[in-house]
Write a structure and sequence with these properties.
The complex is a heterodimer of chains A (408) and B (339). Chain A is mainly alpha-helical. Chain A contains 13 helices and seven strands. In chain A, helix 6 crosses helix 9 (274-300). Chain B has 339 residues and is of the alpha/beta class. Chain B has two domains: 19-122 and 224-329, 3-Layer(aba) Sandwich (D-Maltodextrin-Binding Protein, domain 2); 125-220, Periplasmic binding protein-like II (D-Maltodextrin-Binding Protein, domain 2, 3-Layer(aba) Sandwich), CATH 3.40.190. In chain B, helix 3 packs antiparallel against helix 13 and helix 9 crosses helix 13. The chains are: A mainly alpha (408), B alpha/beta (339).
Chain lengths: 408, 339
């Protein structure tokens, strides 16, 4: 305080902005901000000038004009007479489908591969090392193309399923004539919902509720008496039996429409197109390899004392992993897992390489090309991926805060 | 002002970078080479030969323009473009002109801010199927799987054709002709559809070309021609009249063999004289010298020579002149007078 009173009052020099530690950080921030604003301003100005020179304007009105092109994979009805906006929506749904299914499969693959890579069995851990290193170190695009090429070149044509004059066909359907694997995709039976099918849904929902009730009852019982109940067996029985029973009681309200060869191609059933399979498997296997490493890292992060303590309590290795190691490892695994989910979602835009009609192919591809609205299309596309990524990370962050260490 | 806008603006800058609206000819002359957008490889139209030199019907247009402007038909930098990237490449200034069997349509000419300077091939969309399929008409294709290049007019025609005829199909979107060929040959699609000339060119490269047939239906008009950016009319004129010079040369019997002889001294035909610069000042009117057309014709011959050499009946592609004959032979080729 003494020093402060000694210093002269009105002796502010401009040089203080740099040399005085009280002002320096403010100065730097202000200058950086100004440079940033100038940069942005220059970009916007440059765009405006160049667009004007090309005689182009920025307009999103094209979204409401007729698209005119067809899309093969339709989650909602669409014809070529619908608008570009609806085509974009179809693309968005296809992207989300790949993202959700990809994240699910990648997580399953990743957790298994990560745990198995730590296995004491040399063959198992060796195989998992080969998988992880193979997929992590080869670009995703190449995997997509490899799987696509194998599907297209290696699988039989629909024509090959047709018997020749001797009644012998070159290829045949698998799984009791319900699934056809062709070079145009895999045809699987499609469920047809009858009038009373909704009852089945309710029964299934009720049995899932019952499973949770049984589990919490079993836990309480175990805590109180120490006796264990075979929760898994009861769970499976509860899951399957009531629904199957209801299915027959209601007179089979759900039937399956199996694919049948007719005309140029298989008719009926659901077609999982090659492009879909290629992008789904490639994304899942590729991201799964990264998740496997996260899982392995997470497990190794738990001190060995934890498992030794569990063993000394008499827990078997399986139960140790399930009850002691994984719950703690999750805290380490979840944060990098979020970024893997984001990566997978964004990487799904590589679907264009095999002609999967995701949002990059519709909104950011054909629509742009047919209308010449590159800037608008790319801005919308960027906006979509931004929103999708923010949504995924916020949902995952909620989950993360649930499993992370509760500090009191 | 946050990250979104910054990223957006960066995208914008990327798209608009290097956009040049005027003075394309000055740019080309300063650079000493012409940047010409071509397809990623379509036999007979634009494909590199065994020595890596680009050849073909579309390539010849690029070479003629380069010869007229720069005096060297080899001073061309070929930039490969797909159906999806071609117009963006042109609009952004990445290429000076596009000669990539692109269809002249209203919206491309107006809304996309492009200028189609003429037509070098009158085409129509057709269908190719394996003969084993036993199909004789496109209307029998109900339920067929169709390989289609995305971002093309054929994609829209296809949707219209099947909708109007009330039959269904499964589109397999594909980026390049090579990919389409691979998918088609593997049987991943029953039908390949694109411009009939493209089908003939693709079929010519097949191991067993005879196993595939092109259906009789031509479902659209596809006038294919070179494209330049809208707004640089001087450059547009040069490309337009280079193309007309090739067509006119055929009409007047000027060939790569006799062009030097005819250009040496004025002939009896004033139209030839004006074309070849022995009379009048036509070259100066488009900012070139007198011999511009002589060089353009010497580059690969007149329109007829280019046609016969690359895609004519003597080549594996084997296209007849048809609509692409001179107007005097009942075709649609009609160069405006050189005066």
């Amino acid at each position: 305080m003494a020093d402060a009173s000694v210093s002269p009052k009105d002796s502010f020099h401009l040089s203080q902005l740099i040399y005085d530690s009280r002002y320096r950080s403010l100065t730097i921030q202000t200058v950086a901000m100004m440079l940033l604003m100038l940069g942005i301003g220059w970009l916007v100005y440059n765009t405006t000038v160049n667009l004007a020179a090309l005689g182009k304007d920025i307009s999103f009105a094209y979204l409401w004009t007729t698209a005119g092109y067809d899309i093969n994979q339709q989650l909602i009805p669409y014809t070529s007479q619908d608008t570009h906006a609806r085509a974009a929506l179809l693309g968005i749904l296809n992207t989300l489908l790949i993202a959700v299914l990809g994240c699910l499969l990648a997580t399953i693959i990743g957790v298994f591969a990560g745990v198995l890579r730590l296995s004491k069995n040399w063959v198992v851990s060796g195989l998992m090392t080969v998988y992880v290193e193979g997929f992590r170190n080869i670009p995703l695009l190449i995997w997509i193309l490899i799987i696509f090429a194998v599907m297209t070149e290696g699988m039989p044509q629909p024509r090959d399923f047709r018997p020749d004059e001797n009644g012998v066909a070159e290829a045949s359907m698998i799984l009791w004539n319900t699934v056809a694997v062709t070079n145009r995709g895999v045809f699987v039976p499609r469920p047809v919902w009858g009038d009373t099918a909704w009852v089945l849904g309710i029964v299934l929902a009720l049995s899932i509720v019952a499973i949770f009730a049984v589990r919490s009852w079993a836990r309480k019982r175990q805590e109180a008496t120490g006796e264990q109940v075979p929760v898994l067996l009861i769970g499976i029985a509860l899951f399957v039996l009531p629904t199957v029973l209801a299915y027959f009681v209601l007179g089979r309200p759900v039937t399956f429409d199996s694919p049948v060869l007719g005309g140029f191609n298989f008719q009926g059933g659901t077609q999982l197109r090659n492009s879909f399979i290629a992008i789904w498997l490639a994304l899942s296997l590729y991201t799964g390899a990264f998740i496997a490493e996260n899982v392995r890292g997470g497990i190794l992060a738990i001190s060995k004392g934890q498992s030794e303590a569990a063993f000394s309590l008499g827990l078997r290795p399986n139960r140790t992993m399930q009850l002691v190691i994984l719950p703690q490892a999750l805290r380490v695994i979840i944060p990098p897992l979020i970024s893997q989910y984001l990566n997978l979602t964004k990487n799904s835009s590589l679907a264009i390489a095999v002609g999967y009609m995701d949002v990059r192919s519709t909104l950011g591809g054909i629509s742009i090309n047919q209308t010449g609205r590159e800037l608008e299309g790319m801005l919308l596309l960027g906006l979509f991926y931004l929103i999708a990524s923010l949504l995924i990370s916020s949902v995952m962050n909620v989950y993360n805060s649930r499993v992370k260490l509760k500090e009191r | 002002m946050n990250k979104t806008i910054l990223l957006g603006a960066l995208t914008v800058a990327g798209l608009a970078a290097g956009a040049a609206a005027a003075g394309t000819m000055d740019d080309v002359k300063a650079r000493g080479s012409l940047k010409c957008g071509v397809s990623t490889g379509l036999a007979g139209f634009s494909a590199p030969n065994a020595n890596g030199v680009w050849e073909g019907f579309d390539v010849a247009v690029c070479r003629a323009v380069a010869a007229a402007v720069l005096g060297d038909p080899m001073a061309v930098e070929f930039v490969t473009t797909t159906g999806q990237t071609r117009f963006t490449a042109l609009a952004s200034g990445e290429i000076d002109m596009l000669a990539r069997n692109s269809t002249w349509t209203f919206s491309r000419d107006t809304d996309l801010n492009l200028d189609f300077v003429g037509v070098n091939y009158y085409d129509g969309q057709g269908f190719m199927v394996p003969k084993a399929l036993g199909v004789s008409s496109a209307k029998e294709l109900d339920g067929a799987t169709v390989c289609i290049q995305t971002g093309t007019t054929t994609e829209l025609n296809l949707a219209d054709f099947f909708r109007v005829n009330n039959i269904s199909y499964e589109p397999v979107p594909i980026e390049t002709n090579a990919e389409a060929q691979q998918q088609y040959l593997a049987g991943a699609c029953d039908v390949y559809t694109t411009d009939a000339s493209g089908l003939a060119a693709t079929r010519a490269t097949f191991e067993k070309a005879g196993d595939h047939t092109i259906l009789p239906e031509i479902i659209s008009k596809e006038p294919l021609g070179p494209v330049v950016r809208h707004g640089d009319n001087d450059w547009g004129d040069i490309v337009r009249w280079s193309l007309h010079a090739l067509v006119a040369a055929e009409e007047y019997g000027v060939t790569s063999a006799n062009v030097m002889e005819l250009a040496a001294a004025p002939t009896d035909n004033p139209e030839i004289n004006r074309l070849l610069g022995t009379e009048g000042e036509l070259g100066a009117m488009i900012g070139l010298d007198k011999e511009w057309a002589v060089r353009a014709i010497s580059a690969g011959g007149n329109y007829g020579e280019i046609f016969e050499k690359n895609i004519g009946e003597a080549t594996p592609i084997g296209l007849a002149r048809g609509l692409n004959a001179q107007w005097t032979d009942g075709g649609l080729l009609y160069a405006p007078p050189f005066r």
